[in-house]
Amino acid sequence: MRKYLLGTGIIGAITSGWSLLRGSESQAFTWRVALAWLSWAITFSLSIGMILDVRKASHGRAVPDDSPIAGSEYKYAKGADAEELKKKRKNDKKQNKKK
């Protein structure tokens, strides 16, 4: 669990959220502040999504095709799952080239 919570994405999102919170204490709520909070929420949700994708890959499950780690799940899998995923991905690439 530590490797997920101490990832750079989640630490960066928490740090920027903390800075945003401290900076917005003395400011009035304007559309710029709303956009800043929206941007932070998107960043935080993307980092949570990445954590979920890495967890899926490390347990040998496939990740969605729109994930940044799609195609390299075998790097996160352990043992026999890694070899199986690597072979499956190579076969998928061969079939896509034939089409």
What does this structure look like?
This protein is mainly alpha-helical and 99 residues long. It has 4 helices and no strands. It has helices spanning 2-5, 8-23, 31-58, 80-98. The termini are far apart. The mean pLDDT is 80.
The averaged pLDDT comes out at: 80
Beta-strand share of residues: under 5%
Rg is: 19 Å
Oligomer: single chain
Q: Helix/strand-derived class?
A: mainly alpha
Structure summarized in a few sentences:
This protein has 99 residues and is an all-alpha fold.
Note the topology.
Blueprint: H1 2-5, H2 8-23, H3 31-58, H4 80-98
Helix pairs in contact: 2-3
Task: Output the keywords.
elongated, mainly alpha, 99 residues
